[in-house]
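Hey, I'm writing a tutorial for new members on how sequence and structure tokens pair up, and I'd like a real worked example in the thread rather than a made-up one. If someone can provide the structure for the chain below, I'll link this post from the tutorial.
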Amino acid sequence: MLGKRIAVAASKSRVVAVSRRYQSSEADYKGSANYIPGKQGYAPGFPPPKNWRDVPRKKPDPMLASDLPVPKRPSGEAASARAEKQNASGAFRQRMRELRHSYLHDHLVDEQTKREHRKESLARMREMQAEQREKIREERLLYQTQVQADPLSAENVLNAEGLTLLGNIPEPVARDINDPGYKLAPPRVSISIPEEANRIRNEERKENRRLTNQHRHEDNVQAMMTLFHEAKSFVTYENMDAKINHFLTVLAFSPRSLGEMMDELNKAGGVVTSAEINERSVELRNTLEGSTGPQGKLGYSGLMEWVESHSEKDNEGSGSN
């Protein structure tokens, strides 16, 4: 038991010593060489983790074709002796070695050419961006010097509605033009939107909102009336057999081929089908007659006309009495 307590105390002392040493190393850390606040590197007092590099490993330079070693060939008496003893497999291996070397050499040449092209395109792009920034700076400077400094320019005289503000220009202070410190400053103007324009626009918004609500109400009433007129044709449990018989006998049609359907489409003008023509005809009739549904029943317009006519008759009858 005593031995366990001694071991625990020793381990705690080692942990404390290591933590103190780590804290001292944190305090002595000066920061990494590539440290940029908020971007990269380790800040002073914050060393990298254990077994981590202080500075990232530098990316190796790309291999060039000139750095590629040439495959060696035997020379001298040894070469002649080997040539006599060389078999077909040895010649094949030597040939493949030279072929791989040529492939790698061509690949390195192509990569070097691509890198040069990328550098040239990047330089051209940076040059174009610099020219564009310089052009924008010159335009901004021209605007500031010629437009804002002119008291009678559109920037200083007109507001967003195109109304002149010359009446709001204060009286200029009498100063000597020959004074070296004289500077023609732009006038201070107050931009205000006319109240009449705001009032007219608010009235237009109210009218548009009223018309939108009215159209929505008319569409809802029209849909309800269409549903009312077509309620008799709904399929219920009582008339299910009759509906199925009607579909199989009256509404059944013979299948048509693609050529027949294309011929029908061409006869209709090549734009719409016969079903679309019938649907448009029904819609046109309902619009002209104030009806609704495929059967041409009473619609919203017809209902409103009927209500207005009966209200006029009631008024006439009450007036005669």
